[in-house]
Design brief:
The chain has six helices and five strands; from the N terminus they run ββαααβββααα. By secondary structure, it is an alpha+beta fold.
Amino acid sequence: MQTTAPRPTGVERSFGGDEVIVTKTDLKGRITYANEVFCRVSAFDESQMLGEPHNIIRHPDMPRGVFRLLWNTIKDRREMFAFVVNLAHDGAHYWVLAHITPSVDANGQVVGYHSNRRLPLPQAVRAIKPVYDTMLATERRHSNANEAAQAGCDLLSAMLAERGTDYDRFVWSLAMGDQ
């Protein structure tokens, strides 16, 4: 596996509106399954990513606070929708509307996580970027990654409270083109 993260090139990649990116991970977030669309869009071969942490596609412009909220949500056995910008193996980036859910076995035990990603509406990406930029500015004031993630998560909650909404309603309104 690569030892250093690729540098963002500024090249934006897209995929078909009828395509779905699918991955599955274990409880620690290591990739156990990746469909062809994910491999193509992320520019990774399946063999390069199986067993690797899902954050191998983490873009530096993606706030840690969103991932803190994500992990808190799915560890609480709830689903989450989120807009995410990912970094491909070749440095290109791509936006997704991700739906992440816990995967349970026959006994109801969480055994991993499943994510389906679709192409987001362009206006949703335009609306979420300033929110993420504000979070990133706050997170960059912290040298400790854990403190940065918490600061970003707290700021997001405060921004949404000012708007009289929560994260789920905010994301869903953007996904439906209501904002």
